[in-house]
Amino acid sequence: MKNLIFRVLLVLMIAASTISCSLLGGGDSMKNEPFVIKYEILTSAGVSASSLTPIVSFTNSTGQIDVENITTLNSTKPWVKELTITSETRPLEINLLISAKAEGLYLKLDKQGTITQNVYKDNKLVASSTSQSSNINFFGGFQINVNKLVYKVE
Hints:
Shape: elongated
Distance between the termini: 49 Å
Structural class: mainly beta
Radius of gyration: 24 Å
Number of strands: 11
Strand content: 35-45%
Helix content: 10-25%
Order of helices and strands: HEEEEEEEEEEE
Number of domains: 2
């Protein structure tokens, strides 16, 4: 009798586990659920480009690259953008880059300092990079080279 009860309980536990896994999508299908990305660019000085206004390129809600002009970015006014990513593509590269508009142009700070690019996924910091300006005042500003920040969503 104990053996029969044990077998029935075992079958019920396996069935409950199978049902709960299928209700949750087995874990893998949740990978393609929408999520929130927050982009943030911080600087310790005023930012400009050698010719035109700086731009930010970033991955938009559908997984494509968008570009936005930055009119004001300084130590008291960071650039921040928050999006719900609906693209189901996986892996998906989340990109962030502040730059000058064209090749041959460069970013500059009005004093020596840094630019930090941050990417948050669902309010958790997942990628960050900080770039330091040169220490030479070059045509009214301190040149700074910033590399693209990439975060891969699996």
